[in-house]
Design a protein that fits this description.
The complex is a heterotrimer.
Chain A lengths: L17 H6 L4 H9 L2 H11 L11 H6 L10 E6 L8 H8 L1 H15 L3 E6 L4 H16 L4 E4 L4 E9 L9 H8 L23 E5 H5 L1 H7 L1 H6 L1 E2 L2 E2 L2 E7 L5 E5 L5 H6 L13 E5 L8 E2 H4 L12 H4 L3 H4 L7 E6 L4 H15 L5 H18 L5 H14 L7 H25 L3 H4 L16
Parallel strand pairs in A: 1-2, 1-5, 2-4, 8-12
Antiparallel strand pairs in A: 3-4, 6-7, 8-9, 10-11, 10-12
Helix pairs in contact in A: 2-6, 2-10, 3-6, 5-6, 16-17, 16-19, 17-18, 17-19, 18-19
Chain B lengths: L1 H14 L4 H12 L10 H11 L6 H11 L3 H10 L11 E6 L2 H5 L2 H12 L12 E6 L11 E3 L2 E3 L4 H18 L1
Chain C lengths: L5 E6 L2 E6 L4 H8 L25 E6 L12 E2 L9 E4 L4 H16 L15 H9 L22 E3 L9 H9 L6 E3 L6 E3 L13 H5 L5 E3 L12 E6 L8 E7 L2 E7 L20 H6 L7 E5 L26 H4 L11 H4 L18 H5 L6
Parallel strand pairs in C: 1-5
Antiparallel strand pairs in C: 1-2, 3-4, 3-5, 6-9, 7-8, 10-11, 10-13, 11-12
Helix pairs in contact in C: 2-3
Classes of the chains: A alpha/beta, B alpha+beta, C alpha+beta.
Chain lengths: ~450, ~180, ~375
């Protein structure tokens, strides 16, 4: 079912190597782009494709490219954001691990479009073995004339360098990534100036996610218009979803954004249903920072319409009854999971990953963690819930970078949808340490057992 | 005063220094960045230094890195203490970094963490008496679909069960024994 | 000089024209008074400062004449430049008041509140900020953060628990000295100012970190516990210094010089010297010249900030004239005397009762029955 543009060749034996990748039709887009197109027309195709940034924010990629400043004599840089750290997300890892040349192909075309002669892949430090895979692939591409000086005789020079991070979620934020690339602490910069004007080493810079850049090859091959025909509305093309949690088949799936959430969870082609015959309780559909949804709001929107796996449908209802596509980290929770504990571990994550630069995030994330721990260990009081709500409200929107929002949203959504579970924890301090609130009324309306 | 300084300098140059191969790698890393932007190589060079000098970054090591990159030592301390992968204290030969974030938690990482603690008889952050294992609890490593998991050096150990943990501990124990 | 482009900006319903490139905060400071948002990390003399503390958040109700859309989020006024026709709400915005109260609460969350023993008390920006925008009680019930103590040498005292991580001292060391030895170590809620290895800060201009520190995190060790600032007379003075401008404020009591600082303006920032450069002072002037004879006294320092220092009768426009009224004269003929000896009057001070061990407020019973709650 569905079109596959990125992972269609993922299972070809040896696809990781250049020879097999090339034999399977790889690097055609580089030939086409460098020989038949010019930077402007490539940007135009990407704009037409409607491709939206796959890192989480969903900003149109072509638009982002068109913002890059082109001052005379100043080098420009393309930086690939491979600092995949959002809990629940492991799609970029899959792409790079199995299809490194697909990423390189996209990178070369994009570098040509943006005029980047030195392109950097900033990869999270923990993905050390993937760094080796990428370095190997770069060597192969070099040896075969796709990188280096005067590529394909067009006069275009391009080198790709891989830089490992060293363990900091915040470096997935583009300005923090740029700081880190410069060898500094990963403190996000205050915008403006935006990276497109002053990025790495104060030079115009575009930072794109791995999946976004890997999609460039297919877009050039098929043309922006064709690409835009896949999917629905402003959710064009295909999207990688990394599914995890209590499902039968965790893994990375490529979907064409017309599939319903229900199909995605229950069909054998994708998640294969809830593991161990349990029932669905809740789901965080786009990486840990997006709002958690109870089953009854996940499969159908508040209006009772089917919810689909795309940008618009997942956010239908706003934060009141909807969520977000985010980075595509799809975390499924079954009936045995405790929402309070889940929220607590996420709050701990954000406290741990806050860079500490601005006060609401530095102080607020730790405070929320402590209160959630208190409730989780049966020592909470009712006023703690309201306090949590107030803290998250004061963090959201008031910080330098989106980590503040990312820390606030999971707490807000957990309280919004599961307040009675929090209250149960507080009212039953002993019981909550040994048993679980369970499914209660969160059961999904479709798959309720007879 | 001058005299003391020069002696100290000599001492750390003697104990902490990249060998030829490491120096070549260091130069390759620095060459990837524009002229005068050698500080950009700090993260990769710190990784290299950590691998080269006992798996952790001592003050001497960081001072050495600063001198290699011609930057101030404080710039190195600032960066090294920011990122969670750099160990600023000595660690065991093998560091078990077990993920405890949401997706791993809902897949049962708590049990695995407890089990490792029992098997190694150490708490998170501690090193076994024989200096072989260090246990660290870390946040999301991007292996949520293969949870619970931990990282040992460059390698991800995924779909952990108690049996797998036993096998991993045995594997590294014998590796350590072979080394000594 | 080429003609400057002027932008019209309205802040809290007051319109002003400022040169293009001016930040909202600078424009608001031009208007002055309560229109100027508070700023804890921004420091106009330090490049790159600002944006971090979030106390200066304002609402932009109208982006500009060309693009009148409001900005979706509150913005840091210290780092946002004005556009022509922009309309900004500071204290006229409920959103701003609410967010600012939140920021103050966050800043005080782990603050030790040790003002009674803090040398910065009386000239502390965090005190002013909490007084104006904070709440009277905390909702935080957990243990406050502590840090390992670091010694920064003989001149500068570091109290990390009071630090709000404004980064001003880091910028100061970067921009005034040739070699920075302190910095921000660790991250998140454990980030701290430190040197990593015990190292004293001894660059000739490093003492300026004391002046830029908005709180009591970095204070003058030579002044430590010597006096409260509001008991001191600030006097402008200068000396012929080979290293710096030598233009300072002396903090005297009688003839004794207790402390030397740079001259600060109404925003708490270092004043410019007549040649237009920031009047940073050197360590020699600050720490070593503690005799009146070292200085040429110019006169009393005008302290226009609404701080307790202004309560000192030597400040501001009052001038050098000593008040002629005696205490007796203004107090109905009574001479001051000790009204009661607290040890005679109160049983609370009986040594056998340990107040610290009483759970909750003390009652008469506690003392009458000599109950001690362990």
């Amino acid at each position: 079912m569905g079109v596959k543009l990125l992972l269609d060749k993922a299972h070809v034996p040896g696809i990781r190597t250049y020879d097999v990748y090339r034999r399977e039709g790889g690097y055609r887009s580089v030939e086409k782009a460098l020989k038949e197109m010019n930077p402007e027309s490539i940007v135009e195709e990407v704009k037409k494709s409607g491709l939206r940034g796959r890192g989480g924010a969903g900003f149109p990629a072509g638009m982002k490219w068109s913002f890059i400043a082109k001052p005379e004599g100043v080098p420009r840089h393309l930086v690939c954001n491979a600092d995949e750290s959002e809990p629940g997300t492991f799609k970029d890892r899959y792409l790079m691990e199995f299809l490194p040349h697909l990423l390189l192909e996209g990178l070369i075309v994009s570098s040509f479009a943006l005029g980047s002669n030195d392109t950097y892949i900033y990869i999270r430090g923990e993905y050390a073995w993937i760094t080796d895979i990428l370095e190997e692939a770069i060597k192969e591409a070099h040896a075969n004339g796709w990188l280096g000086k005067n590529i394909l005789g067009t006069g275009f020079d391009c080198a790709i360098h891989v830089q490992r991070g060293a363990g900091a979620y915040i470096c997935g934020e583009e300005t923090a990534l740029i700081e880190s690339l410069e060898g500094n602490r990963g403190n996000p910069r205050i915008k403006p100036p935006f990276p497109a004007i002053q990025g790495v080493w104060q030079r115009p810079t575009v930072v794109n996610n791995v999946e976004t850049l890997a999609s460039i090859g297919p877009i050039i091959n098929m043309g922006g218009d064709e690409y835009a025909k896949i999917g629905v509305g402003r959710s064009t093309g295909t999207k990688l979803i990394s599914a995890c949690g209590n499902i039968n088949k965790p893994g990375v799936y490529e979907i064409d954004m017309t599939i319903s959430v229900e199909d995605f969870i229950y069909s054998d082609e994708f998640c294969g249903g809830i593991a161990n015959g349990k029932k669905l309780k809740a789901c965080i559909p786009g990486g840990s920072s997006v709002p958690i949804l109870p089953a009854n709001l996940l499969l159908k929107t508040a209006k009772g319409e089917t919810r689909y796996m795309n940008y618009e449908s997942l956010s239908d209802g706003g934060f009141a009854t909807g969520s977000m596509m985010g980075s595509g980290g799809f975390i499924v929770l079954d009936e045995d999971q405790c929402i309070v504990k889940n929220t607590y571990t996420l709050a701990r994550f954000y406290r741990h990953e806050s860079c500490g630069q601005c006060s609401p995030c530095r102080e607020g994330t730790g405070w929320m963690e402590k209160i959630l721990q208190k409730i989780e260990t049966g020592k909470g009081s009712m006023s703690d819930i309201d306090l949590l709500w107030d803290i998250q409200r004061k963090i959201e929107g008031n910080t330098i970078c989106p980590l503040g929002d990312a820390a606030a949203w999971p707490v807000a959504a957990a309280i919004r949808h599961f307040r009675d579970e929090f209250e149960w924890h507080i009212n039953n301090p002993d019981l909550s340490q040994t048993s679980n609130f369970g499914l209660q009324h969160y059961a999904d309306p479709i798959h309720v057992p007879a | 005063m001058l005299c003391v300084q020069s002696i100290e300098k000599k001492r750390f140059y003697m104990s902490i220094q990249f060998n030829e191969q490491q120096m070549t790698e260091c130069k390759r890393l620095v060459a990837r960045y524009p002229e005068g932007k050698q500080k950009s190589a700090l993260l990769p060079v710190l990784h290299l230094a950590q691998e080269s000098f006992d798996g952790w970054l001592s003050t001497e090591t960081m001072d050495y890195v600063a001198s290699v990159l011609s930057i101030e030592p404080i710039e190195v301390y600032e960066v090294a203490s920011f990122y969670s992968m750099y160990n600023l204290k000595p660690v065991g030969q093998f560091v078990f970094e077990v993920c405890q974030t949401g997706p791993c938690m809902i897949s049962g990482s708590d049990n695995i963490i407890t089990y490792i603690q029992q098997q190694l008889d150490i708490k998170p952050g501690e090193t076994t008496k024989d200096g072989i294992f260090t246990l660290k609890l870390v946040e999301c490593l991007g292996a949520c679909g293969y949870a619970p998991m931990m990282q040992v050096g460059k390698i991800y150990k995924e779909h952990l069960t108690k049996e797998k943990v036993d096998a991993i501990i045995t594997e590294y124990r014998s590796q350590a024994a072979a080394k000594n | 000089m080429s003609e400057q482009i002027l932008f019209k900006v309205t802040i809290d319903n007051i319109t002003i024209e400022v040169p293009a490139g001016t930040t909202i905060l600078q424009a608001a400071r031009k208007i002055g008074g309560t229109v100027a948002p508070p700023a804890m990390c921004y420091y106009s003399k330090l490049q790159g400062s600002g944006g971090k503390c979030r106390t200066c958040l304002v609402e932009v109700a109208k982006g500009s004449e060309k693009d009148p859309r409001p900005m979706p989020k509150l913005v840091a006024s210290c780092r946002t430049t004005v556009m022509d026709g922009m309309e900004v709400k500071n204290i006229t915005s409920d959103k701003v008041i609410d967010a600012r109260a939140g920021v103050v609460e966050f800043l005080l969350l782990n603050h030790p509140l040790d003002c009674p023993i803090c040398d910065q008390a009386g000239e502390c920006h965090l005190q002013d900020l909490s007084f104006e925008h904070g709440k009277s009680e905390t909702r935080y019930e957990f243990q406050r953060r502590t840090f390992k103590k670091h010694d920064l040498g003989k001149n500068i005292q570091l109290h990390m628990t009071r630090c709000i991580l404004c980064y001003r001292c880091v910028f100061t060391a970067d921009q005034l000295t040739n070699k920075r030895v302190h910095g921000i170590l660790d991250r998140g809620d454990h980030a701290e100012i430190a040197t990593h290895i015990e190292k004293s800060l001894d660059n000739e201009f490093i003492g300026n970190v004391i002046d830029v520190c908005p709180v009591g995190a970095l204070t003058d060790k030579t002044f430590r516990f010597k006096n409260r600032v509001w008991f001191l007379k600030p006097m402008d003075a200068h000396r012929d210094c080979p290293t710096c401008s030598g233009r300072v404020t002396l903090w005297n009591r009688g003839d004794e010089v207790y402390r030397v600082t740079a001259r600060k303006d109404e925003w708490g920032e270092i004043e410019d010297t007549p040649d237009g450069k920031p009047g940073w002072i050197c360590n020699t002037c600050r720490f070593d010249k503690k005799e009146t004879s070292d200085w040429v006294i110019e006169g009393p320092r005008a302290i226009s900030r609404q701080s307790v220092i202004a309560q000192g009768h030597y400040a501001g426009n009052v001038g050098m004239t000593k008040p002629t009224e005696t205490f007796k004269a203004v107090n109905g003929g009574r001479t001051p005397h000790l009204l009661l000896d607290i040890h005679d009057e109160s049983e609370v001070n009986q040594s056998q009762i340990h107040l610290g061990k009483i759970h909750g407020p003390a009652h008469g019973d506690t003392f009458n029955n000599k109950i001690e709650n362990a």
